[in-house]
Amino acid sequence: MNRVYVCNCFGVTEDQVKKHADDGACTPRQIASACKAGTDCGSCVRRIQALLGRGACPRRDLVEQGSRALTADPNAVVRLSDAA
Q1: Each residue of 7-28: pLDDT tens digit?
Q2: Is the pLDDT of residue 77 over 70?
Q3: Does residue 64 register a pLDDT over 90?
Q4: How distant, in Å, are the alpha carbons of 1, 37, 48, 78, 80 from that of 32?
Q5: Does 66 have pLDDT greater than 60?
């Protein structure tokens, strides 16, 4: 098996980052929460950003759909509890 390491500090592979992204992690911070990648020396953060930028993010798509719906209805009211 050929493993390409993204984060040498914590031994996180490219496949692991992609799996976390498939599970909904859309930002380097969310990847860090899932597997610690990017939280020690930080040299892998740009690589993580590049990996995340290549695929579609289900959460990002939902956020964009919600913002389009809000701009379509200028009278829409959003409570902070609804936005979370």
Answers
A1: 999 999 999 999 999 999 999 9
A2: no
A3: no
A4: 24, 5, 10, 30, 26
A5: no
| Cα dist from 2 to 5, 35, 40, 55, 57, whole Å | 10, 20, 24, 21, 26
Strands (E), the chain: 5-7, 12-13
DSSP 3: -
In angstroms and rounded to an integer, the radius of gyration of the C-alpha atoms of the chain is 16
Domain ranges of the chain: 5-83
d(CA 40, CA 2): 24
The number of residues making up the chain comes to 84
Its CATH class, for the domain covering 5-83, is mainly alpha
| Inter-residue contact 21 to 15 (CB < 8 Å) | no
C-alpha triplet 79, 80, 84: angle, nearest 5°: 120
